[in-house]
Amino acid sequence: MSFSLLPNELVLVILASIPPSGIEAFALIDTRCHALSLPALTVHLKHKHHAAAMHARFLHYPTRKSYKDLIEKGLVEKGMLPNLEYLQLNGDLHWLRAQTPEVAAEHDGWPRGRAANSQSLGLTLPAGFATFIGSQALIERLHLGGNTIELGELFKCTLQQDGGKGGHVVRFMCDQQGCGYWGLYMDTAGHSCVVHTESWDDFFCGCCEAGRYAAYAHPPVAHEAIVEAAASLRFVCVDAEWEEWMANMYFDGWIWGALWAEREVVGWDLEYVRHFERQKDTVFGGGHEKADRFE
Fold first, then answer.
1. Where do the domains of the chain lie?
2. Contact call for residues 12 and 26 (beta carbons, < 8 A)
3. DSSP assignment, residue 214?
4. What tens digit of pLDDT does each residue of 74-88 get?
5. How far apart are CA 152 and CA 226, in angstroms?
């Protein structure tokens, strides 16, 4: 039977099996396919245009794990990266599953962070961010290898930082020794992305005030000093979608933990590994003038 003779019901079944990255090609088949795929196509193009806007605003430099151990064990090939379309990320954090008590116990000594109320930020937050940052139970499902979740001060970006778009940044994670920080960038148009900086050393986050990294803790810093120091920060965009970035963090952390403990990668983590595919991982966006700020 010719495809053109198929009833709409069967075409919709076919459409439901197509990943977001294939929606545009499907919509080009004919007028009917375009009409039937329009709802999914609209969502896909919105995400695509959002990513393009964030990559144009900041130098885009995806921070990825090397996956060297996975390559050495033959689980993935060099040049492959995870494709998260299978997770159908929608903000409900269904992928953020608790590890078994036995696995979680192996990493009890690592700090993970503490919950905070982000509703008072007054900006449009990415789906799932407020739920995650406000839940100690969800935070403790991550294995961060010494990095720590900690909601910091909200400050407005300077003209040099986001091109005068009026965006704000709030720090939500730091590494174990204050060498790298990750923040959530948001603007009044509803755009957001995950940004990274290595220059936040003027005010260390409070997550190191206790525990194994107490020696690195700085005394509390006044809000005015934080705002002044933040004006000199230089950001790169590591992911245009907060939930996508966090999902990669979740799986990468526990897979690293399994390999470190010489356990097999199984279950939900293995499913993630099975969705690695060859992708082009590039540094782009921002133009020469903006890129020069990060050299």
1. 3-57, 60-294
2. no
3. G
4. 888 887 888 898 998
5. 10
